[in-house]
């Protein structure tokens, strides 16, 4: 085993070991369990950083005899279940690497946040263990180079996330009892619906191609047109549920509203990315002909998501719900980028993914902090936050402005270049889509400014004036600071992500063309 | 014509039948509860060991109609074929019997049912199951299946002083007898058409096809399948199952939903792959239709259940649909009698093995959470059970999640993956979609039970931490451990069931 392979396995194994270790910690040592889990999450972050291969950009590591569009920096290929075409085949390249690091980073921040702020009556160590299991599933999805393995890890995430929402969610005292369980059930059934369609799609491909190796399959090698169309349709619906793409997004607002803060952060920051990553790597990569066939439909739906998300946000009165719906709009930009099937569009989608993970993660952390202090998320009750908590409201302003796509912050690149890619694609359809998407971008600015006006400006509302408003704690600052820095760093130096992805995306576009 | 009987081939069957006789004698002569149960348990484990050795040995056949083509070759037209899959099935039946005996031990100790009768009947049923796996003709098959089922009529009614139990027994008896009669009629019509009952002769097709009797054969095929579908409780022939399961003592309900279901599935597999190959078009349509109906109705009705055993019963109805689906798909596609058919049969058997394992674990956990001799109760009674018994609760959740086919229940996940893979490989995409969508409905009710286990009790009249009796704990532990192992190494099961 090379050092790279060891790092690859360690990235996946450390959270798994951590989850098992934390689960065995007895109830009286709850805090120790949370700390232990955080240590494992930190080790996983270190392992994921070690995967990086500086020369791995354009040429990457590729055996000479293989001319595939996927050229992993490191690869590990072991037999697992030959009877089901399942191989334990992991690999990482410039498309997946930024997402891997985002995942390990956000999980660490969530675990650390849980150490500082115990989630009330329910045991915090169990929550940490579940976060680590979710991390295993997400990382496995990003690292898998075998379709069946990809599916397997895709499903690993479902039940732990259900447990997080159902067990630790619903802290809103005004919500009816059991609302969080209903939201969790909606989440798990909806996303399982997506992933069973993916199972059918995966084996449609495997049955036709005789292999589940993503490296071999990328570019649609040897798949007939009907197979590709069927496979793409199934896979695209599966990933559209996860992303989520309008009109399959209805599980998202409920899940986000009811989930605990760390659950929302994980959900928005990394779980949604599984959908868009899958769309790029699996659906587009394996069934390019299907992708070309469905691209206009995807583009129209993506733009519809942008507009619908923005309009719903303009009418939202609840903080977390508003951020959740803003995710629908942002993922719409990402999907628009994918739908163009151009290098620019895919690049925009990738950086949009990362930016959304960082910024929306930060927004949910901040929303959680506000709800912790004032026990309400209603915009009407939160006026005048700036008077009582200038630092918190300043951070919220920063995150909101980053999210609306101000140049110089992370949110700008993904949205701007998705529109540019659609314009470059040319033709009446794509030009129209680009224009509407740009209008959607303006609406995004409108609702975030409305949010800021309602929450931070004006005189302090009775709720804000009456509550204690504890100052920002050290653990909160520690959890937010990396995201604040990253939002600025990715905004100023987009090559952090784009440089890595340039080679693989170019190769993918070549293969898909 | 006289011929030598290959006693070695029959060894597992001898051991199973011997167990029944020994248990009867032990109960008569020693008349001590522990001895009787121990005899039955040892007999079951002995049968399992013999079956395990048989799996490693060569194919043995006896009661044959033809002569071997070459010296040492397996002769054709045999009524009893002890090959590797027969050994696997015998092994499963023996282990399930041992497990159910262990689950019943506390209830028997509490005097919920007469010990001697219980053990004897269970051993008889095991004999039927062991012979069933080796059946080579339709008559042996149906007789073995009946030997498996007949003792269960009595076992279902064995709960003392329980009207529901008696009702369940009568329902089960009436339905099952009708089903057997229908299956026998079907076999007779097929015989009238072809003049053969041996599976391999039937598979080869009639020597001189005659249009006059050909229609008769087709009716026979449908009747035979319908009769066997009763045994796996396939919709619309399922109505007996929930009432029977719920009325039966818990361990017997466990046996019904594992061993009895395994028996029905094996019978259908044998009949479809062997005897009915010439009628694949007919049997395929019947099976595919049954499969879709069964999984959909089973899952949808399970959503509304409020009693634990009824929920498990309806869920096992749905699971039967997943078992039938690959068979239906393979048979519809009559052209591919070769590879795809083989995969489909192996897949159906694989799914059955995974299902039986998880179902046993689920029932063992339910038994562990209830007082000895109690029935399954309402699902609401289990609120907070996992807080009082964290390990049992975790095992039950693992089994339920496995039945739903999701990680961390990897065994169930791979079972579902195998079915979908086989269906798509056989070109039955619509069946694969039906299976996939049903998995979503299934999760809804499994999740409801799992969430209830971790819910907060509203009344604080907690009945304390009653200790789980060790035989139940051992069975639960073993079943869970095996489920975890085959979850990570499903290839073990795939290899064992390869046709």
The overall strand count of chain A is 2
Strand composition percent of chain B: under 5%
For the termini of chain A, the CA-CA separation is: 35 Å
H/E element order of chain A: HHEEHHHHHHHHHHHHHHHHHHH
Number of helices of chain A: 21
Low-confidence stretches of chain A: 56-66
Please give the domain count of chain B.
Answer: 1
- Record the strand order, biggest sheet of chain A: 1-2
Number of helical runs of chain B?
19
How confident is the prediction overall: mean pLDDT of chain B?
Answer: 85
**Classification by helices and strands of chain B:** mainly alpha
Largest sheet of chain B: 2 strands, antiparallel
Layout of secondary structure:
The complex is a heterodimer of chains A (513) and B (499).
Chain A: H1 3-23, H2 30-50, E1 74-81, E2 86-92, H3 97-116, H4 124-143, H5 147-156, H6 158-168, H7 179-209, H8 214-217, H9 225-242, H10 251-258, H11 261-286, H12 288-314, H13 319-340, H14 343-374, H15 385-388, H16 390-403, H17 411-425, H18 427-455, H19 462-466, H20 474-492, H21 495-512
Chain B: H1 11-29, H2 33-56, E1 60-64, E2 78-82, H3 84-109, H4 115-134, H5 138-156, H6 163-194, H7 199-204, H8 211-231, H9 240-247, H10 250-275, H11 280-302, H12 308-332, H13 339-369, H14 385-388, H15 390-404, H16 410-425, H17 429-453, H18 470-488, H19 491-497
Antiparallel strand pairs in B: 1-2
Helix pairs in contact in B: 1-2, 1-4, 2-3, 2-4, 3-4, 3-10, 3-13, 3-18, 4-5, 4-10, 5-6, 5-10, 6-8, 6-9, 8-10, 8-11, 9-10, 9-12, 10-12, 10-13, 11-12, 11-17, 12-13, 12-16, 12-17, 13-15, 13-16, 13-18, 13-19, 15-16, 15-17, 15-18, 16-17, 16-18
């Amino acid at each position: 085993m090379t050092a790279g392979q060891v790092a690859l396995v360690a990235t996946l194994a450390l959270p798994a070991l951590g989850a098992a270790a934390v689960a065995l910690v007895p109830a009286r040592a709850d805090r120790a369990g949370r700390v232990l889990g955080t240590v494992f999450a930190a080790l996983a972050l270190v392992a994921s950083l070690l995967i990086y291969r500086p020369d791995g950009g354009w040429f990457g590591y590729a055996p000479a005899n293989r001319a595939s569009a996927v050229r992993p920096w490191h690869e590990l290929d072991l037999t697992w279940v030959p009877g089901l075409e399942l191989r334990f085949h992991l690999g990482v390249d410039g498309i997946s690497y930024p997402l891997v690091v985002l995942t390990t980073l956000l999980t660490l921040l969530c675990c650390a946040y849980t150490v500082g702020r115990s989630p009330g009556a329910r045991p915090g160590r169990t929550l940490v263990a579940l976060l680590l299991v979710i991390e295993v599933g997400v990382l496995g999805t990003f690292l898998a180079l075998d379709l069946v393995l990809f599916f397997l890890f895709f499903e690993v995430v479902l039940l732990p996330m259900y447990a997080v929402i159902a067990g630790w969610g619903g802290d809103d005292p005004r919500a009816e009892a059991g609302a969080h369980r209903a939201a969790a059930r909606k989440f798990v059934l909806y996303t399982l619906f997506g992933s069973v369609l993916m199972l059918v799609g995966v084996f449609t491909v495997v049955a036709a191609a005789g292999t589940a190796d993503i490296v071999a399959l990328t570019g649609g090698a040897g798949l007939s047109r009907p197979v590709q169309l069927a496979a793409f349709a199934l896979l695209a619906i599966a990933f559209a549920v996860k992303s989520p793409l309008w009109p399959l997004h209805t599980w998202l607002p409920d899940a986000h509203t009811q989930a605990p803060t760390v659950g929302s952060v994980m959900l928005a920051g990394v779980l949604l990315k599984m959908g868009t990553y899958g769309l790029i790597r699996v659906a587009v990569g394996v069934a390019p002909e299907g992708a070309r066939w469905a691209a206009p439909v995807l583009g129209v739906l993506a733009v519809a998501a942008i507009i619908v998300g923005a309009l719903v946000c303009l009418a939202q009165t609840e903080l977390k719900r508003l951020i959740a719906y803003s995710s629908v709009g942002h993922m719409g930009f990402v999907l628009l980028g994918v739908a163009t099937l151009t290098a620019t569009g895919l690049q925009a989608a990738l950086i949009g993914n990362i930016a959304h993970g960082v910024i929306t993660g930060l927004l949910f952390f901040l929303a959680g902090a506000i709800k912790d202090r004032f026990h309400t998320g209603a915009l009407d009750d939160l006026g005048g936050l700036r008077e009582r908590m200038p630092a918190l409201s300043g951070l919220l302003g920063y995150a909101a402005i980053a999210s609306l796509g101000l140049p110089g912050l992370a949110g700008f690149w993904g949205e701007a270049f998705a529109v540019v890619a659609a314009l470059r694609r040319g033709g009446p359809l794509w030009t129209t889509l680009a224009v509407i998407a740009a209008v959607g971008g303006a609406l995004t600015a409108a609702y975030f400014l409305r949010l800021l006006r309602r929450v931070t400006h004006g005189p302090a509302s009775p709720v804000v004036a009456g509550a204690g408003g504890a100052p920002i704690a050290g653990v909160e600052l520690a959890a937010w600071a990396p995201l604040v820095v990253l939002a600025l760093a990715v905004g100023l130096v987009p090559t952090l992500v784009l440089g890595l992805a340039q080679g693989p995306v170019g190769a993918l576009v070549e293969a898909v063309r | 014509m006289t011929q030598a009987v290959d006693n070695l081939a029959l060894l597992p069957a001898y051991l199973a039948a011997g167990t029944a006789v020994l248990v009867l004698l032990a109960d008569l002569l020693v008349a001590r509860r522990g001895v009787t149960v121990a005899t039955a348990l040892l007999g079951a484990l002995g049968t399992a060991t013999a079956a395990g050795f048989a799996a490693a040995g060569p194919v043995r056949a006896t009661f044959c109609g033809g002569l071997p083509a070459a010296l040492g070759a397996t002769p054709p037209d045999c009524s009893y074929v002890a090959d590797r899959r027969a050994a696997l099935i015998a092994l499963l039946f023996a282990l399930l019997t041992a497990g159910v005996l262990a689950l019943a031990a506390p209830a028997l100790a509490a005097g919920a049912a007469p010990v001697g009768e219980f053990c004897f009947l269970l051993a008889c049923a095991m004999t039927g199951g062991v012979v069933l796996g080796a059946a080579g003709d339709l008559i042996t098959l149906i007789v073995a299946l009946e030997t498996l089922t007949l003792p269960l009529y009595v076992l279902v009614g064995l709960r003392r002083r329980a009207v529901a139990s008696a009702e369940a027994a009568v329902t089960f008896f009436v339905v099952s007898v009708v089903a057997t009669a229908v299956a026998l009629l079907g076999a007779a019509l097929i015989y009238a058409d072809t003049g053969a009952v041996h599976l391999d002769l039937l598979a080869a097709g009639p020597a001189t096809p005659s249009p006059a009797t050909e229609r008769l054969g087709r009716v026979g095929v449908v009747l035979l399948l319908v009769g066997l579908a009763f045994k796996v409780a396939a919709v619309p022939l399922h109505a007996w199952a929930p009432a029977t399961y719920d009325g039966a003592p818990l361990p017997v309900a466990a046996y019904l939903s594992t061993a009895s279901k395994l028996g029905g599935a094996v019978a259908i597999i044998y009949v479809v792959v062997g005897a009915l190959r010439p009628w694949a078009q007919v049997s395929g349509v019947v099976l595919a239709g049954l499969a879709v109906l069964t999984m959909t109705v089973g899952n949808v009705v399970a959503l509304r259940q409020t009693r634990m055993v009824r929920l498990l019963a309806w869920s096992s109805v749905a699971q039967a649909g997943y078992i039938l689906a690959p068979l239906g798909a393979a048979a519809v596609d009559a052209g591919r009698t070769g590879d795809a058919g083989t995969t489909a049969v192996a897949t159906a058997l694989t799914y059955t093995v995974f299902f039986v394992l998880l179902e046993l674990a689920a029932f063992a956990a339910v038994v562990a959470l209830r007082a000895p001799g109690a029935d399954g109760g309402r699902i609401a009674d289990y609120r907070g059970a996992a807080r009082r018994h964290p390990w049992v609760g975790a095992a039950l959740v693992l089994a339920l999640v496995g039945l739903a086919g999701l990680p961390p229940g990897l065994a169930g996940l791979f079972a579902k993956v195998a079915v979908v893979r086989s269906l798509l490989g056989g070109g039955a995409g619509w069946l694969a979609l039906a299976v996939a969508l049903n998995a979503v409905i299934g999760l809804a009710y499994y999740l409801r039970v799992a969430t209830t286990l971790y819910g907060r009790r509203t009344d604080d009249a907690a009945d304390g931490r009653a200790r789980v009796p060790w035989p139940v704990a051992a069975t639960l532990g073993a079943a869970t451990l095996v489920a975890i192992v085959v979850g990570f190494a499903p290839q073990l099961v795939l290899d064992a069931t390869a046709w």
